[in-house]
Amino acid sequence: MATPSDLVSDPDSDPTERLLAIMRALRDPEAGCPWDIEQDFDTIAPYTIEEAYEVADAIEREAWDELRGELGDLLLQVVFHSQIAADRGLFAYRDVAGDVAQKMYDRHPHVFGDESRDKSAEQQTRDWEAIKAAERAAKAQTGTLDGVAVGLPALLRALKLQKRAARVGFDWPERAQVLDKIVEEAQELHEAAESLPQDKIEEELGDLLFVMANLARHLDVDPEAALRRANAKFTRRFERIEALLAEDGRCPQDSGLEEMDALWNRAKTEGL
Questions:
Q1: Which of 56, 66, 143, 267 lies in the 20 to 30 Å Cα band around 166?
Q2: What top-level class would CATH report for the domain 4-106?
Q3: NTP pyrophosphohydrolase MazG-like domain: which residues (predicted)?
């Protein structure tokens, strides 16, 4: 039977068992890595979020050669959190894997049970949400918005809150009403920026962003994906501005807004 040290050093051993053994070794209070030993849930959480976004970025760029590594980095976060939990006597990696395996089994009765698979994607989504609602009820999470994680990125959390509220009828029936609300919130932001303190300006901007997320939901658009694409487009066009200026031996600081705006429009016509 392989010892922990054998697992750590043997690249041909079971990859999951080897990764778990390496993390245990790194967290060993006597012989582990000082940095790894010092970490806790709070200090590792930002890295977990960052790694999830790097996975999304690789997918967005269709960088399939990078995706394997990014998924590994994300898996490491799960292993790290699980080891911290094991060190505290809370749970272990096998509990995490076992829980999610059972959850996926329970949430797919049309695959693993006796329910029919002959239903639309929309019906499957409704069934999935019904099962999740029952799970929340079993945890005494009876409020409509219970269980929407506070630590989610704000735009994603706004979307989830709005979806939950819409399920119980708290929603505009028409897209036009959402657009009207955007106009209203934009006007309130304009007025706040003219005369109100910074905290009120922030509040009004938050209201506008919240309604924009609601519009994305009504348009069936993922706002995070839409904004990532907008960021990528801005990057492409601005880099083109820099390249065009560099042809004359200049940089943006040597130009002005009018010229750079014209170059932006040129980049736009080039399909960037």
A1: 56
A2: mainly alpha
A3: 39-112, 178-237
